[in-house]
Amino acid sequence: xxxxxNNVFAKILRGEIPCKKVYENEHVLAFHDIAPQxxxxxxVIPKGAYVSMDDFTANASLAEQGAFLKxxxxxARLVGVAEAGYRVLSNCGVGGNQEVPHLHMHIFGxxxxxxxxGK
Length: 119
Ligand code: AMP
Description:
The protein is α+β, with helices and mostly antiparallel strands and 119 residues long.
């Protein structure tokens, strides 16, 4: 899938629309999801133009990849869910039900989350 520079997260990165920022560094931005599905629901995104996890690992530098992974854990601590527990999830592609075509990791927490996939 080609990167669409008009996707909503690209607009957030360009400052064209606002976000509730949690964390930022050279390579990464994290902000609260606009429609939280759990009491804590944060999105971590790389600043580079990558659609999905497979696009990212194929095309991003190791510095970008390392910064992204580190930010996920750091943000979990920052927003206070590390001790009680949390879930990270990235929807990728059509079959993964990805709505925004800019790589993002969801961090869910703030309540017991149950099983990942119901039995
Ligand atoms: P996904 O289905 O993994 O692509 O999820 C996209 C997520 O982005 C959803 O949880 C949306 O609520 C969230 N989202 C969409 N627009 C915004 C926005 N402007 N600011 C913050 N989160 C957003």
